[in-house]
Design brief:
Length: 438
């Protein structure tokens, strides 16, 4: 994919850490993918990991001895643990269990893997994997934030069916997705001076507000106008932003989704309520993402009592009036006193043309365009594809095409691009169009 042009794993010295979770069986495939991408891979396993997968498997796949113990004189006689820490240009822990995260967040060095992490100052990535309740526990979330503050990049977790039968966040990303994420994060940090901590630290300084889901426009005390938006894309964006360490406010219409860990959620019903919450949140937000499917119209009069079926009339006339355009209201604020504004455009034809028109008309900084005519993608689905557009040079808009992929992964790409564009416009304000100068 085009966004991977800069980063490569060719010749990269990767230390793959495996801790004791059921997802450890996937680490064998991950080791293969890393090798296939040209990386040199050495594996360190915790004691728990060895209950799920044999060191010999990883040894056969990497062609290198697998290290499991800090106090193994034979292994230390080869490459000692400090040499191994120095050797590694990148540490990737997959799966990273709740226990391992807790130990690393405390700076413990009570086994080989944690010791290596403490003794290495290169680039650090981990793919958390655990039961959804463990992931959601405030202690784990606090550990995740702390680790991000230390410079760890968290890849995932994904949400869905779990080995224990639960459903929710905590699944390890699939090995292919881990490699893709790794390449993307390396691309993002390639031009930054101080290596691994930079991207996480940047995001950790940001406040990101996201609107999600549908709105409900009341007709009377029991009826409303709404749409089929599931809120999945907005919630995935909130999760991705929180994983990057940002402070995240999620303004959600009525949806059947759980709040991603670490996200501050405000529930609203109507477009007017959403506008009020958005305006309040936008005041101190760095990025505002309007992902909600806001109803364009609402009833001019909301009946005080249930509208009765008339026995004489075959038709009922409702008069609708236009709802405020929330994102346009946020974007119309004066130069520099508004966040970086990202909108969405769901189209069934002429995707780029209509999206560019919305980008300009609503005075947005970036737009995420979806072709909703493609089967299995978009509304209600777990997958989506997108075309990201922003104000580029005079000659052409900036663009990034993202192929069909799970909304969780796509969301990470969108958040990373928004953060990158925010930094770019802060550094080169002239890159934005004349109407949208920040
Ligand atoms: O409905 P439309 O295609 O114009 O939506 C494009 C963008 O504007 C989306 O980001 C959507 O969240 C936002 N929007 C809004 N308030 C509206 C209508 C749309 O914030 N009333």
């Amino acid at each position: 994919m085009s966004q991977h042009t800069q980063a490569s794993l060719m010749g990269k010295r990767i230390l793959l850490g495996i801790s004791g979770g059921i997802a450890a069986y996937k680490s064998a495939h991950l080791a293969r993918l890393l090798k296939k991408a040209g990386a040199e891979v050495r594996v360190v396993m915790t004691e728990g990991a060895q209950a799920f997968i044999a060191p010999l498997t990883l040894q056969a796949l990497t062609g290198e001895p697998v290290r499991t113990s800090l106090l193994d004189p034979e292994a230390e006689a080869g490459m000692g643990h400090i040499e191994l820490a120095r050797w590694a240009e990148l540490i990737l822990i997959a799966p990273a269990t709740a226990d391992l995260m807790a130990r690393l967040a405390q700076g413990q060095a009570d086994d080989l893997l944690t010791t290596l992490c403490l003794a290495n100052d290169a680039q650090w990535f981990m793919a958390p994997a655990m039961n959804q309740a463990m992931w959601r526990h405030p202690a784990t979330l606090e550990n995740a934030r702390r680790l991000q503050g230390y410079g760890w990049h968290l890849l995932g977790p994904d949400a869905g069916d779990q080995a224990c039968g639960d459903v929710g966040p905590g699944r390890m990303l699939e090995p292919e997705a881990i490699v893709n994420e790794l390449l993307d994060r390396l691309t993002d940090t390639a031009s930054k001076p101080s290596g691994s901590a930079q991207q996480a630290t940047d995001a950790a300084e940001l406040t990101i507000t996201i609107t999600a889901g549908p709105t409900r426009e009341p007709l009377d005390p029991v009826r409303y106008l709404s749409n089929h938006s599931s809120g999945k894309m907005g919630f995935a964006l909130a999760q991705a932003a929180a994983e990057r360490g940002a402070r995240v406010r999620l303004i959600s219409g009525p949806v059947a989704l759980e709040t991603p860990p670490g996200v501050e959620r405000v529930d609203v019903e109507s477009a007017q309520e959403m506008l009020a919450a958005a305006q309040k949140a936008a005041v101190d937000s760095d990025i505002f993402i309007g992902c909600a499917a806001v109803a364009d119209y609402r009833a001019e009069q909301v009946a005080e009592h249930k509208i009765k079926k008339s026995s004489d009339e075959d038709a009922l006339t409702l008069r609708l009036i236009k709802n405020p355009d929330i994102i346009a209201r946020i974007a119309e604020n004066a130069v520099n006193s508004r966040p970086f504004v990202v909108g969405f455009a769901a189209e069934t034809r002429d995707l780029e043309r209509y999206a560019l028109d919305k980008l300009t008309r609503k005075q947005l900084d970036m737009i995420v365009a979806n072709d909703v005519s493609q089967p299995g993608l978009g509304f209600g689905a777990d997958k989506n594809a997108a075309l990201l557009l922003w104000h580029g040079s005079e000659a052409a808009p900036g663009r990034l095409e993202l192929s069909p992929q799970p909304k969780t992964i796509l969301a990470a790409r969108i958040i990373d691009t928004a953060i990158k564009r925010l930094s770019a416009t802060d550094e080169h304000p002239s890159c934005t169009s004349s109407q949208v100068t920040r």
